Amino acid sequence: MKHFLVLGYTVARLNLRHCHQSAWSKHGTVRKIGVDLGERKLEISTGRLARFADGCAVAQLGETSVMVTAVSKTKPTSSQFMPLVVDYRQKAAAAGRIPTNYLRRELGTTDKEILTSRLIDRSIRPLFPAGYFYDTQVVCNLLAVDGVNDPDILAINGASAALTLSDIPWNGPIGAVRMGLVDGQFLVNPTRKEMVSSTLNLVVAGAPHSQVVMLEAAAENVLQQDFCHAVKLGVKHTQQIILTLQQLAREQGVTKRTPPKLFTAAPDMVELARQLASEKVYAVFTDFSHDKVSRDEAINKIRLDTEEQIKEKHPQAEPYEVIEAFNTVSREVFRNLVLSEYRRCDGRDLTSLRDISCDVDIFKPLHGSALFQRGQTQVLCTVTFDSLESSIKADLITTALSGVKDKNFMLHYEFPPYATNETGKMGGMNRRELGHGALAEKALKPVIPADFPFTIRVTSEVLESNGSSSMASACGGSLALMDAGVPISSAVAGVAIGLISKPNPEKPSEILDYRLLTDILGIEDYNGDMDFKMAGTLKGITALQADIKIPGLPLRIVMEAIQQATVAKKEILGIMNKTIAKPRDKRKENGPVVETVRVPISRRARFVGPGGYNLRKLQARTGVTISQVDEETFSVFAPTPTAMSEAQEFITEICKDDQEHQLDFGAVYTATITEIRDIGVMVKLYPNMTAVLLHNSQLDHKRIKHPSALGLEVGQQIQVKYFGRDPTDGRMRLSRKVLQSPAATTVKTLSERHSISMGTGNSNVTDSS
């Protein structure tokens, strides 16, 4: 038995050694290349780490390094789409920190990780071959972060390098850069410090032949011409990365695997579906009386009939082939209607908006609300104010990586299943909802005043959806903010531009003909080649996100889409202004209130209470939030004016005027003992005073362990000297010990209103000796 175990172990070691050898032979020797981007150099290396992955690359800029691996299965799945998963992980060790959760491990995923994963996914997904339905995973691990260079751009370039150098079928490479705009100067891959003063945060992912494959931008009202120039500069720099990766792939001798099968419909089945269904589908798409629901029902009825007839003719066909055959015909009819007849399925021309209606102040108790309807897309937006303490606090790792500590403006997007006449799980948040909410938040953030005294939360709930709900959220959010009286600098509107293109059969990257569609429907997004979302004010652009579904888009089409979106944006703003043209002069009467309370150091201990008892009691009783601004100033936030009135009464009662202002520094007073403690006695100098501690060390020159050693009792009156308040903690300073000396000292009663010099004799002065 022992010999068999040894033999098995030996075979396992041989297999492992074979794997190492195959990995080495697949990746070759360690290679490193560099690309000069402005004043910085992007370095990409491969062949040293994670050699069992199909592809691995390390992208480095400065001292920030990101390792990206790509693995794709060789057996297909039963999916009807490209099963690509991108995982971007922020590692605490890379930032020199330890996670702050109780396990001290990386747990779950942060918003930053999800949004960056989406950014990478949208950059690489369009370049996979059509019908490539094989499980593919791209993992981005942060190895080191220098706090100067952002790792997300490195992750996109690392993913491009890993896929390019692997045998996974992929029509790359791509390159990605970030463009900033500081004092009128465009910066390539600016540092974190430079980004603080930049009015533009634009990520450009470019494909070969100077084409655009992905755009993501947040801007502070950047002019259209400046934005377009930034896109062109970004694409120009991506070409340097692409050429370098192509050269590295040639040197490595990379050959792509041939998939066992691409999941596309057979030509004979497509032709049969065309004969059976094309005229019926055309009739539905040209019947402009249909809305989303009736159109979908009509198409589904034709689908079921057609698929049944295809199955009769091709009984051995796989389900996906039958489904894809009909889908191919349906897309052909839909796209030809736009390309050839310049018509859309709802009867609009290519540049017309859907009917728009706006309403504000929907629910009176809310701080702000608006309902935005565009066609069959309906969004309800609400605004809620809370204290600055309610701002989002970033975790330590995100703060170390991005520099963002907290934010007092947030937009949360919700897409319940009833919005598309479906059932499903409620609650939670998926990646799509997070991404759409982040885009609408980017659109509105530049117009929010920096010194606004509240934390602002905008919620956008999609009640009906037929395309472009994220841009409807930007419009509805702008209306709700103005209804709430937030002094935004300008109204914001957003619109989505679609694309139907005709590629060159011989050169798929070349577009022979195209049509741009303004304000796209859901079906136009599904059957189209692009979802180009842009938001901004009358002056400029505040946010942009381009989801491009073809392997690349020429710059001229991108520029035309920006221009078409600009025209539509102005038209939408004109409609919105008819409902509410500027923010309300005042916030609503039931809105929150913030007031500043000045508490002298002498009363701070009483205001706060023992262990913060009074503050907790105040907050629990009235619902206010209290935060300390400086040594003597507290900020009081109340959710309603009524709550503020209650809080003011409570504070007045706690801090009501007492007789302490009559106490003279250095004078002697008669104090009454109210309590005996081990460490001293509690005394009062006047009836309504809060008792203060007279420590054992200040009772007598002798060292005592308990006040009883001096024969002190509750109710006994003793003479103490007043030394004012401690400047650090505000405690009253009293001493009996100093009066045990032979020196004569002034003793005063609080009935005296005039000053008495120390040592002056009268009926109210006693000699402590």
TrEMBL record:
According to its UniProt record, where is this protein located?
Cytoplasm; Mitochondrion intermembrane space; Mitochondrion matrix
How does this chain sit within the bilayer? Peripheral membrane protein
S1 motif domain location, by residue? 666-737
Q: Which domain of life is it from?
A: Eukaryota
Q: What biological process terms from GO does the record include?
A: mitochondrial mRNA catabolic process; mitochondrial RNA 3'-end processing; mRNA processing
Instruction: Tell me the InterPro entries matching this sequence.
Output: ExoRNase_PH_dom1, ExoRNase_PH_dom2, ExoRNase_PH_dom2_sf, KH_dom, KH_dom_type_1, KH_dom_type_1_sf, NA-bd_OB-fold, PNPase
* Keywords for the protein's UniProt record, in alphabetical order: Acetylation, Cytoplasm, Exonuclease, Hydrolase, Membrane, Mitochondrion, mRNA processing, Nuclease, Nucleotidyltransferase, Phosphoprotein, RNA-binding, Transferase, Transit peptide, Transport
Keyword Coiled coil among record annotations: no
Record carries keyword Magnesium: no
SMART domains from the entry? KH, S1
Record-listed E.C. numbers: 2.7.7.8
Q: NCBIfam families, alphabetically?
A: polynuc_phos, PRK11824.1
Q: How does it assemble?
A: Homotrimer; in free form. Homooligomer. Component of the mitochondrial degradosome (mtEXO) complex which is a heteropentamer containing 2 copies of SUPV3L1 and 3 copies of PNPT1. As part of the mitochondrial degradosome complex, interacts with GRSF1 in an RNA-dependent manner; the interaction enhances the activity of the complex. Interacts with TCL1A; the interaction has no effect on PNPT1 exonuclease activity.
Family to which the UniProt record says this protein belongs? Belongs to the polyribonucleotide nucleotidyltransferase family.
- The protein depicted here goes by the name Polyribonucleotide nucleotidyltransferase 1, mitochondrial
